[in-house]
Every structure is written in structure tokens, then in C-alpha cells.
Amino acid sequence: MKSTLRRLAYTVPGTQALWISINRALGREGRPQFTGWGMATNALTPWHDGGGDALARDFVRVNAEVIAAVQAGRMRLSQFNEVQDKPRRLQELMWRHYVVFWSARYAADATATPEKTLVECGVCDGLTAYFAINAVRGRAPLRAFLYDAWQAMQAEYLLESEQAAAGQYAFLSMENTQRNLEPFAPEAVFIKGFIPDSFSTAALPQHVTWLHIDLNASRPTTAALEMLYDRIPAGGVVLFDDYAWVGFYDTKVAVDTFFRDKRGALMPLPTGQAIFFKH
């Protein structure tokens, strides 16, 4: 009903002012449309009221699927073990996951290669991979190369300014991630080890449609870019999870340095992410 009234307000002459007045009277004006993951916005989300375009509707369906799987125990998110209300946390992550979903589908549609190859460096429990694979699956043949150490971060891979992160993520398990992504077993390849060492333990993808880097450290981020960037065709995308977070400033510097002479466009986002569109 509410979405119908809104559509009428912006299509029937003379009704927009009335709609604005009603919202002011009810105290809705200025109320955030979305809060979560360090951001709040009064702007409508792409999926507001369950609507939006086909991509937004697909995203809402997958997000609901993830929440149902977590509630039923089919998906275990070890990174949120201490979070009591996991469905609420997942709702707070929706803008982040929408960017993942949107960028993967965009890259699949914008690249000319018949098979779409998704690569994630820093997989954790497989949550973002779940969204990315769903965004592409059924639209084209795909493979997903998933790189993670699935063990505690080690000091030797970190800058001096990042040493406090040593020992983090010791709770991760590749077996748990494989269970979470079991529906995609035919398409998913799991490569265990620290980057860049793990790049030499398995065959690299010939081309990279979509690359997601979430390594929480600048040296492995640079190593991933140096190894994989030339394999990305025009129209491909690199998505960074840590780009604009204050605690990962060294990663931002590393990314900015790498792309200084590259053809394309780097767009920072208020979610802390950034997308590079390769030309």
C-alpha cells in the first residue's frame, strides 16, 4: 500500500506536495532509510519496499535465503559467533552485500569472455562469495576461485603498522566455508594458503571477470593485484572491502599506488568499499 501511494505521489500531478506533507506530519521525513556497517542514509535503498529493478529483487531474494540458512543452521558464520541477533546483523550488511551482488553481475554482463570467473582473495566463511556466485549463476557458465589461509594472520605478511592483526581469524575453517558454499560445489575451487604463496600451489584462472579483495593487509592486497590484474579483461571489476576504513589506511595507500597508472576508474563508496572499473 505504502509503495503504491509513493508511486502515485510521483506520477499524478499535484500529489507530490501532499505526500511530502503527510510524511512530515507522521515524522517520517528525515528518518534514515538504512543504517548499518558504519553508515546511515536518508536516501531510498535500491531494494526499498521490496521493489526496485530485477537485480534488486534478485538480491533481496538471495539475502532472505542467506538469513533463512543461518537461522536453520545450514550456514554457519563463525565471524559472527558472538553476535546474538545474526539476522539483524545481516540486515545491517545489506548495502555492503548489494555492492558485492551488483558489481559481480555488472562485471559478468560487461565482459566478453564466454565463461565468467569470480576470484575472491579473503573468503572467510564464504558469505560474500555466496552473494557473488548467486549474482552470476544461471546467466553464464562460471567458475569461482576462492583464496584464503583459513587460519590466523601471521606477522611476516604484515607491515609494522599492521602487526596488531597478527593472530586474528584463527577461528576460520575451510571445511566450514565449503559446507556454507556446498550448493556451488561444481563451480567453486578452494585454494588454502597465504597470499602470495598460494598463487603457486594451484593453477591460476586464465581470466578474471570479478576480483574481490578482502585481506585486511596491504602487502597481500598488492600481491593479489600484481598477480591477477593483467588477467582482468576490459569491463572487469575489482572490488575492495577495506579501502576506506581508517584501520586499514595502508591498504588504501597500496591500492591508490597500484592504480595510479592504470586505465580505468576507482570509485570509493560510503560502505568503506571501493570499485575499480577496468577500461
Write the layout of secondary structure elements.
Elements: H1 2-9, H2 16-25, E1 34-36, E2 39-41, H3 54-72, H4 86-92, H5 94-110, E3 116-121, H6 127-136, E4 142-148, H7 174-180, E5 188-192, E6 210-213, H8 218-228, E7 237-240, H9 249-258, E8 264-268, E9 274-278
Helix pairs in contact: 1-2, 3-4, 3-5, 3-6, 5-6, 8-9
Describe this structure in words.
Helices cover 35% and strands 15% of the residues. The chain has 279 residues and is α/β, with parallel strands linked by helices. The chain has two domains: 2-31, no CATH class; 94-278, Rossmann fold (3-Layer(aba) Sandwich). The strands form two sheets. Strands 5-4-3-6-7-9-8 form a seven-stranded mixed β-sheet, with helices on both faces. Strands 1-2 form a two-stranded antiparallel ribbon. Helix 3 (54-72) runs antiparallel to helix 4 (86-92), helix 3 packs across helix 5 (94-110) and helix 8 packs parallel to helix 9. The chain is globular and about 60 Å long. The N and C termini lie far apart (43 Å).
What labels would you give this structure?
globular, two-stranded antiparallel sheet, Rossmann fold, 35% helix, 2 domains
Poorly predicted segments:
none
Silhouette? globular
> Radius of gyration from the CA trace?
20 Å
Q: Numbering strands along the chain, what is their spatial order in the largest sheet?
A: 5-4-3-6-7-9-8
Question: What is the CATH first-level class name of the largest domain?
Answer: Alpha Beta
What name is given to the CATH topology of the largest domain?
Answer: Rossmann fold
Tell me about the largest β-sheet. Answer: 7 strands, mixed
Q: What order do the helices and strands follow?
A: HHEEHHHEHEHEEHEHEE
Determine the oligomeric state from the structure: single chain
Structural class: alpha/beta
Query: How much β-strand is present in the residues?
Result: 15-25%
Label the CATH architecture of the largest domain: 3-Layer(aba) Sandwich
What's the CATH superfamily of the largest domain, by name? Vaccinia Virus protein VP39
Distance between the amino and carboxyl termini: 43 Å
Helix content bin: 25-40%
Overall structural domain count: 2
Number of strands: 9
